C-alpha cells in the first residue's frame, strides 16, 4: 500500500534540488503533487520528466500568490 494514496501534496520549491526529490517521493507514494516554483523552465522540465506532477509557476513569497 502506498502511504500517500489519495492525498494532495504541495511542494514549494518543487522544481529542483530537495524540493524536487520530495515531489518525486510523494508521487511514488501515490500522492497528487503540485510543484510550485518561480522558474517556468525548471517546472516545465519536471512536468515533462514526471508526467503526473502538476506545476504552478509563481513566487510563493508574493502576498497575492494563491
Helix and strand content put the structural class at: alpha/beta
| Total beta strands | 3
**Through-space gap between termini:** 32 Å
- The count of helical stretches stands at 2
Largest sheet: number of strands, sense, barrel closure: 3 strands, parallel
Oligomer: single chain
- Could you say which overall geometry the principal axes of the C-alpha atoms support? globular
Main sheet strand line-up: 1-2-3
Write down the overall mean pLDDT.
Answer: 91
User: Which range does the strand content fall in?
Assistant: 15-25%
Low-confidence stretches: none
Q: Order of helices and strands, N to C?
A: EHEHE
Rg: 11 Å
Residue share in helices? 25-40%
Walk me through the structure:
This protein has helices spanning 17-28, 40-49, and strands at 8-12, 32-37, 54-57. It has 66 residues and is α/β, with parallel strands linked by helices. It has a three-stranded parallel β-sheet, covered by helices on one side. Helix 1 links the parallel strand 1 (8-12) and strand 2 (32-37). The chain is globular. The mean pLDDT is 91.
Amino acid at each position: 500500500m502506498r502511504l500517500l494514496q489519495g492525498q494532495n501534496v504541495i511542494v514549494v520549491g518543487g522544481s529542483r534540488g530537495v524540493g524536487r526529490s520530495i515531489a518525486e517521493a510523494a508521487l511514488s507514494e501515490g500522492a497528487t503533487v503540485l510543484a510550485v516554483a518561480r522558474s517556468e523552465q525548471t517546472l516545465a522540465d519536471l512536468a515533462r520528466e514526471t508526467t503526473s506532477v502538476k506545476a504552478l509557476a509563481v513566487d510563493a513569497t508574493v502576498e497575492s500568490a494563491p
